[in-house]
Structure prediction request, 160 residues.
Amino acid sequence: MSRREKIIVVAMILAVVLGGFNFLGKPPDPLLVGKEQHINELNQFIAKAISQLNDNGGKVSEYILKTASLKLDKDPFLKMEAKKASVPEQKSSIAEKDEQTLHYSGYLQLGHKNIAIINGYEYENGDAMESLGYIVQQITPEKVILESMGKEKIILLIEE
Prediction:
């Protein structure tokens, strides 16, 4: 047998011996020792947690029922769609301005910006409503103050 073959045979025998020791002579896993005791402790913890939930369940249910019946000022799930105001190329005549009614239907606050939704379009402070000849002066959640080109002020209250 050549030297190379002897090294391979020794490595194979060493691998078989280590594998057999690892498989047969391995000490028991410390996590599995006392397994039944650990399972009993977990079952006691679960039973205690369930009993506490049952004891407080009546209070939680009472709180949920009480808060569910409260009337909210505004619907938190109301979704309002709005279009960005576009600048028309021509100014409307005064007769068309009188026919157009203004509806303040929404208010958005994005950081420091206040946005009013008037007739389905979004306007910020200082924006011009050129088709109607108004400039947005002030926006609050309750009202919008518009100023016409002739310095006439109009207050629009929010419509919900």
